[in-house]
Amino acid sequence: MTYQDWLTKNCGDKLVNDFEAISKINRGSRVFLGSACGEPRHLIRAMVGDMSLEDVMVYQMLSFTLAEFVDDPSFLRRFSIKLFFISQSMRKAAFEGKIDYIPAYLSQIPGLFSTQNIGLDVALIQVSPPDGFGYCSLGISVDITRSAMENAKIVIAQVNPMMPRTHGDSFIHVNEIDYLVFHEEPVVTSSPGVKDNEIARRIGHYVSQLVDDGATLQVGFGFLANLLIQYLDKKKDLGIHTQVITDGFLPLLRNNVFTNKKKSLLPGRAVASLSMGSEELYRYIDNNPMFYFATSEFVSDPSVIARNDNLVSISSALEVDLTGQICSDSMGYHFYSGIGDQVDFLRGSAMSKGGFSIIALPSTAQNGTVSRIVSHLSEGAGVATTRGDVNFVVTEYGIAELQGKGIFQRVMELAQIAHPNYREKLITVAKKHHYIFSDQLPPSTDDLIFLEGYKTTQELKNGKTIEFRPLLPSDEFSYRNFFYSLQEKTIYYRFFYKMKIFSHEIVQNQWAKVDYRKNMSILGSIQKGGRKEIMSIGSYAETDGNRAEVAFVVREDFQSLGIASYLLEILEGIAKENDFKGFSATVLRENSAMIHVFKKRYPNIKIKHGGGGEVDIIMDFEEIESLENL
Question: What share of the chain is helix, strand, coil (3-state, %, to 5)?
């Protein structure tokens, strides 16, 4: 029995043509249209084509088909368009004031329908054909569609055999539908508008550093966020709890990167509320029990999101100001997209055990002529996400960690991941606003991507893992805390006097010397709760044309674990890259442990005894190369 035969036999009184269905819409009606790629295109075109309809108010989340009509004055006289999110195809119409944007958190839109804050007379939806029990599926558009359908006075469904049949909370019985219109046509597809490029690759590299194996991911609306998924291809047992499934997920699903095994909520299931992508993606989703499609008030509810341990939210933004305010829905006075679920997931990830959020964006726009890291948001720009909600911000120049940090630290973190052309100006404006010290040095204007090669990890004898990386200007407060955690003897061995104060001025002096080539500092840190804590620092600084002075300090509870030796090896490798021939060091004669570290690496060191209880040590790299060649 064909679908048409089943519908004729069991739903004869409900089965109508498009003209009959649209005739149920009256003048002045409030009409909901199914969302995004799940929208019922045939019914929408039939509605627009009925010239008897006037003063109809249309509600939709993401719209594609209406873009065909928004430049027609007669259409705009008959229909008022209200969108919860502005798609790329509707952006020009939004800029021209032809549609009305409704700012709302995605998790709360269904409640607007159920409370009648937004009353609906008719819902036009699209479903898969019914099974033998009379159940259709909302397919790739459950999101706010289910609530709209449940709260509309009349439900008209386009029955489309090409609509994927999805599992979860997507099933509706034909008894819940007032009129059925059978019409087969391809489901709307959505292809990425941004191709992979070097900027995306670098952002993806940094994002991959933050995401651990076993994490559950949310990936927000936007082409960049979905482009970044491919750079997680070396991870294991990732999970999915996200609003929208796109083609970006497909390769990692097929390669078992996304297994959903480690999820604490609905393990084994990829949770989403809609899908936007290619026909290939839809066929993968079709009748696949791995996918659990649920409503937006479930998927995007922060309290539900928080039930996923290690939930990592990845979304994008148009601008980030130096205090951490995020604009994602407007460009100045022009509404560009929508609030969507960014705030829902940022707050849900913050409540998740081990969870956090990432805002990823290119450092510039308009071919590098505009910085996306700004001293203040553009005039008219809306604050979609407050400065209190932001955790990590990532550009192609690095990672800024903002959570729990003051304005001073935020300025330094964000300035150092801005495009090099804009860093000095950002620091100048920040001084004007008294965000930072008046003598604050700006971050280096070099592209420091090469520093990524200097990041390493080491597992210690005590089972702890240390991460080593170059010291950055934004580490000032962590560096300060490290100094004050040291015992007096350790400080004396490092600085040769009983240094009591480690002031901002002293730190600035340290920073003034670091250029990451002639001068380098590598810090070692451990994870402690939700933060990293410095426990060692090794540095070298040029003394003459081919030699650099080297020094170390390791916190007492991590001494005698080989850390200084490891730091010495790292610094030697960097120094060789920068054409140094050897190290020198000035060490207190009583500091036998440090002298032993140098002798172990360079057995033939030259020791010169000076006055005041100090010794000067000379170390040549040629010696190491000779030993390695034996």
Answer: 35, 25, 40
Instruction: Answer positive or negative: Cα dihedral of 424, 404, 204, 274.
Output: negative
Does 87 share its domain with 227? no
Q: Does residue 443 lie in a domain region?
A: no
Q: Please indicate, yes or no, if residue 507 is contained in any of the structural domains.
A: yes
Instruction: Give exposure, 269-289, as e/b (b: 16+ Cβ within 10 Å).
Output: bbbbbbbbbbeebbebbbeee
Which residue in 145, 390, 107, 60 sits closest to 241, CA to CA? Answer: 107
Q: Are residues 336 and 399 in the same domain?
A: yes
Q: Which residues, other chains included, contact 432 with Cβ-Cβ below 8 Å and sequence gap of 6+?
A: none
Q: How many CA atoms lie within 13 A of 596 on its CB side?
A: 7
Do residues 569 and 456 make contact, with C-beta atoms less than 8 angstroms apart? no
User: Got the DSSP string for 511-534?
Assistant: HHH--SSSEEEEEEEEEETTEEEE
How distant is the alpha carbon of residue 128 from its chain centre? Answer: 33
Residues of the domain holding 159:
3-182
- 559-588 burial, b at 16+ Cβ within 10 Å, e below that, comes to eebebbebbbebbbebbeeeebebbbbebb
**Which residues, 6 or more positions from 233, have their beta carbon under 8 angstroms from its beta carbon?**
251, 252, 255, 257
Strands (E), 460-605: 465-470, 519-528, 531-542, 547-554, 582-588
pLDDT value at residue 449: 86
Q: Tell me, yes or no, whether 157 and 263 share the same domain.
A: no
pLDDT of residue 496: 45
Q: 56, 121 in Cβ contact below 8 A?
A: no
φ/ψ of residue 92, rounded to 5: -60, -45
CA distances (Å), origin 61, targets 39, 167, 193, 542: 10, 22, 19, 60
In this structure, is residue 445 part of a structural domain? no
Same domain, 202 and 175: no
Integer CA distances (angstroms), 218 to 242, 249, 357, 519, in order: 4, 11, 9, 40
**75 lies in the same domain as 122:** yes
pLDDT digits (tens, 9 = 90+) for 218-266: 998 877 888 899 999 999 999 999 999 999 999 999 999 999 999 999 9
Residue 483 within any structural domain of the chain: yes
605 shares its domain with 460? yes
120 and 239, same structural domain? no
Pairwise pLDDT comparison (612 vs 284), residue with the higher score: 284
Residue 499 vs residues 478, 488, 489, 493: alpha-carbon distances, Å: 18, 8, 10, 10
How far is residue 31's CA from residue 40's CA, in Å, rounded to a whole number? 13
Which are the contacts of 570, defined by CB distance < 8 A and separation ≥ 6? 454, 456, 468, 522, 538
Provide the CATH number for the domain around residue 372.
Answer: 3.40.1080.20
| pLDDT band, residue 391 (cuts 50/70/90) | very high
pTM above 0.85, yes or no: yes
Give the span between the Cα atoms of 42 and 338, in whole angstroms.
26
Q: For 596-619, write each residue's pLDDT tens digit.
A: 999 999 998 899 887 677 889 999
Query: What is residue 459's three-state secondary structure?
Result: strand
